[in-house]
TrEMBL record:
Region called Disordered, residue ranges: 688-714
Protein name, as recorded: Solute carrier family 15 member 1
Source domain of life: Eukaryota
UniProt KW keywords: Cell membrane, Glycoprotein, Membrane, Peptide transport, Protein transport, Symport, Transmembrane, Transmembrane helix, Transport
Species for this entry: Oryzias javanicus (Javanese ricefish)
Length: 714
């Protein structure tokens, strides 16, 4: 009872400053922290899937967009809970608690040490990490989606009716806080991810990248609760979305029950609801359905837009992030979007739109987008292929014949390309023929060495995938006459015996130095400039010496090219998509609100959010169902689908007839008023008639009594 009384109490006046309720400052700070938490977590999410959970690109993309879709499906649930049961304040508090717990669980799932029993830097129980991360993401989706329709509306509730101007300013500041939180978080959390942390081994710190957003979400919750005593808390009034769904459901069921031809047709199928619902509600639902029909093609735009956090980020991992003295992380490229939004919104509003209006041009917000494809990516063998590179470490020319390939190799040189075979092949070295059998689906390096009985091919294997996260893979072949100790980066490879190959060591981009020592303690330092994602085999030649020019005795063989295609090439695609977002989102919402009934703006807001959810569902379907081996083919598929959708949408827009919801509502309101007046007149007539009849009855009864009295006296 106490809770009900609290909900029913009248609006109280909140303390103010400069004409604004103090309570809105708590709401703005809460929104900034929440958006920092959400976008910061999402910025590094797909890389967490790829590098920590070790999922392939397609599965990482699928789970990422499944999570994004849930985040835009749950707002409907949050709106119903707030409007029908708990009210906005309690809904925000309860779901924010769930939200915070989800962020904490996700941060814990990224601590590799909790299951690293053998302390090798790799979690031993990956199932536990996956289970925790999925639980965390589910809680986050419920929390962020559930509060999404409540926070802005709750902020609007803090203003009195005469504070319309202040309310408009509040919404501007509110959305500025969203973009500020998004911008800062997409800059900061990738930096945190790039730090190394751990108890036993140092790894990229995803736990810190998730932990800071979790802390910000806790701050958001505390700040929001701190303002509790200053808020205007309105009681739940019932959710109009539920009423709309019930009205539509009744119309469908009633039409199905009266599907026989003996029943006369009605002008619109929603008219079958007039047996239960008033005509004004039915007219409002018709207006909403008319706009929602136009929403059908819109998910295709969001399918492209939300790939910024998945496919585009994964694409950036294969590109060169060197911008002069500045090095950009792949997930930091997402900052281009909020930066461009802050720049483009005033430009579009104050320059572009007025020019378009003066030129009387029809302008569409949708833009086709095509992507540059990174040509530095190596092509690894399929399951029925064998790839082989030949390296000559003999100090003379060697003629290599392998199957149909005839390869003359210079001293200490490698074949230009990896040759592809589908089965075992004949290898001829200076006329000596041998059969080479290698497992299918493998990449191999056959090194030709000189031994006592002649030239001998030795298979040392090869790198199985392109180095990740911009690192470089380096290994050494010892062609010197004695054992050598080699250190690559921070990894000491140990002593390499003659005519043998070390393991690969991981080295960051920039100026690298390799240390070579012999058993006598002599030392040689080999410098090398490295880019992003390359692989080298370093040949220590028989002529190697520990003198001042020792680096001349080491020869570099390039196995995989570095990422030479700059991340800067992603900026045009971000620019085009952001222009599309500014025009598409702002114009789309403005159009939707202009065509929506006064009490059903929230229904169209829910419909708009659903288009985002369905767009993400499209991406995960394509990622899993489409059997496209090349990434560029998927980009072309999305571009073609968007062109098709643009054509369909243009046709739909051409036949769309604009309406004035206010006039329609006023028309039905007047009809309802006239109907009430008519009923009132009828009631008055009936009442007068009943009164006249009652008077006649009383007069008749009085005459009858007098007659009886006379008869009794007689």
């Amino acid at each position: 009872m106490a809770e009900k009384e609290e909900l029913k109490k009248s609006r109280k006046k909140s303390p103010g400053v400069f004409g604004y309720p103090i309570s809105i400052f708590f709401i703005v700070i809460n929104e900034f922290c929440e958006r920092f938490s959400y976008y910061g977590m999402r910025a590094v999410l797909v890389l967490y899937f790829k590098y920590f959970l070790r999922w392939d690109d397609d599965f990482a993309t699928t789970i990422y967009h499944t999570f994004a879709a849930l985040c835009y499906l749950t707002p409907i649930l949050g709106a119903i809970i707030a409007d029908s049961w708990l009210g906005k304040f309690k809904t925000i508090v309860y779901l924010s608690i769930i939200y915070t717990l989800g962020q904490v669980v996700l941060a814990v799932s990224a601590i590799h040490d909790i299951t690293d029993a053998n302390r090798d830097g790799t979690p031993d129980n990956m199932t536990l990490h996956i289970a925790l991360s999925m639980l965390g993401l589910l809680l986050i989706a419920l929390g962020t989606g559930g509060i999404k329709p409540c926070v802005a509306a709750f902020g609007g509730d803090q203003f009195e009716d005469h504070q319309e101007k202040q309310r408009g300013t509040f919404f501007s500041i509110f959305y500025l806080s969203i973009n500020a939180g998004s911008l800062l978080s997409t800059i900061i959390t990738p930096i945190l991810r790039g730090q190394e942390c751990g108890i036993y081994t140092q790894q990229q710190c995803y736990s810190l990248a998730f932990g800071v957003p979790a802390a910000l979400m806790a701050v958001a919750l505390i700040v929001f609760i701190a303002g509790s005593g200053m808020y205007n808390k309105t009681a739940p009034q019932g959710n109009v979305m539920v009423k709309v769904c019930k009205c539509i459901g009744f119309a469908i069921k009633n039409r199905f029950r009266h599907r026989s031809s003996q029943y006369p047709k009605r002008e619109h199928w929603m008219d079958w609801a007039d047996e239960k619902y008033d005509k004004l509600l039915i007219a409002q639902v018709k207006m909403v359905l008319k706009v929602l029909f136009l929403y059908i093609p819109l998910p295709m735009f969001w399918a492209l837009f939300d790939q910024q956090g998945s496919r585009w980020t994964l694409q950036a991992t294969t590109m060169d992030g060197n911008f002069g003295a500045l090095t950009i992380q792949p997930d930091q490229m997402q900052t281009v979007n909020p930066i461009l939004i802050l720049l483009l919104v005033p430009i579009m509003d104050r320059i572009v739109y007025p020019l378009i209006s003066k030129c009387k041009l029809n302008f569409t917000p949708l833009r086709r987008i095509t992507l540059q494809i990174d040509k530095t990516l190596p092509k690894f063998p399929s399951n029925d292929e064998i790839q082989v590179k030949f390296i000559n470490v003999v100090n003379r020319d060697v003629q290599v014949t392998a199957g149909d390939y005839d390869l003359p190799l210079k001293p200490f040189m490698a074949s230009e390309n990896y040759e592809t075979f589908t089965e075992s092949f004949q290898l001829s070295l200076d006329g000596n023929v041998s059969t080479v059998s290698l497992p299918k689906g493998t990449r191999n390096t056959i090194t030709i060495v000189q031994q006592a009985d002649g030239l001998v091919p030795i298979d040392f294997g090869d790198i199985t995938k392109k180095p990740e996260q911009g690192a470089n893979a380096i290994r050494f072949f010892n062609g010197f006459g004695s054992s050598l100790n080699v250190t690559v980066g921070d990894k000491e490879m140990g002593y390499i015996v003659p005519n043998n190959m070390s393991e690969y060591g991981s080295v960051a981009r920039g100026s690298a130095k390799y240390q070579i020592k012999n058993e006598a303690g002599q030392e040689c330092v080999i410098p090398q400039e490295l880019g992003f994602g390359s692989s080298y085999t370093m040949l220590i030649l028989p002529t190697f010496n520990f003198g001042p020019n020792c680096s001349d005795g080491v020869h570099q063989i390039l196995d995989i090219e570095p990422n030479s295609f700059s991340m800067a090439w992603q900026i045009p695609q971000y620019f085009l998509l952001t222009v599309g977002e500014v025009v598409f989102s702002v114009t789309g919402l403005e159009f939707s609100y202009s065509q929506a009934p006064s009490n059903m703006k929230s229904v169209l807001q829910a419909g708009w959010l659903l288009t985002v959810a369905f767009g993400n569902i499209i991406v995960l379907i394509v990622a899993e169902a489409a059997t496209l081996e090349e990434q560029w083919a998927e980009y072309i598929l999305f571009a073609a689908l968007l062109i098709l959708v643009c054509i369909i949408f243009a046709i739909m827009a051409y036949f769309y007839t604009y309406i004035d919801p206010a006039k329609i509502e006023a028309h039905f309101a007047n009809k309802e008023h006239d109907e009430k007046e008519r009923r009132k007149s009828l009631d008055m007539v009936k009442k007068a008639s009943f009164q006249h009849q009652d008077d006649d009855n009383k007069s008749s009864d009085s005459s009858s009594d007098e007659e009886e009295s006379k008869q009794s006296r007689m």
